[in-house]
Amino acid sequence: MGFRSLAQSLLLAASIAAAATTPVFAQQQPAPSQAKPPAAAPAPAPAPAPQQPSAAKPNVEPVTPGQTQPPAPGTVKSNHGAWSVVCDKPAGAATEQCALMQNVIAEDRPEVGLSVVVLKTADRKSKILRVLAPLGVLLPNGLGLNVDGKDIGRAYFVRCFADGCYAEVVLEDELLKTFRSGAQATFIVFQTPEEGIGIPVDLKGFAEGFDALP
């Protein structure tokens, strides 16, 4: 599977692109031995052009999950463990749009947080996984994902807004099954090419919450 992403807003009111144009998670190639980090330049260099995330395995610093972020706009219809079903009716829409959401802030690093959103496309034929990461992450390295110790791959960040940077993929059946049966997902953001920060997301209640989506 390939893990790439689309540029779309986290807002429930945003329209969902056709499933055929939405990419999916891709497995990384086997990691070679870790290369030494490059010597620091005397002055900051211009940001490089976006490129394929490095296959080298970075050091990942785990963080402790803390309180949840403020709830997203909309109405909370139900709670399922660490997840909530949130619905909102965009202006001009005939029906509500609903999403399964969890917002996490690291207890020991309050500047590091994630919003994880799962929703269905308007035609109900595809599922979307959308992640909002904080501003300041290293964009070319993408967003890593690990579930219960299994490396899933990385996705690209393709757009940033005032509230953070977004990655989005099709939630294929295999990954959905992994989320439903898993205990903890760890999303990894990078501050340098070699240093990642692992943000744990509790999967308790995910299966029940997904089944509750209209």
TrEMBL record:
Region (Disordered): 25-79
Comp. bias regions, Pro residues: 39-51
Entry keywords, A to Z: Signal
Compositionally biased intervals (Low complexity): 25-38, 52-67
Signal peptide: 1-26
Gene3D superfamilies per the UniProt record, alphabetical: Invasion associated locus B (IalB) protein (2.60.40.1880)
InterPro entries: IalB_sf, Invasion_prot_B
Keyword ATP-binding: no
Protein name: Invasion-associated locus B family protein
Organism encoding this protein: Rhizobium leguminosarum
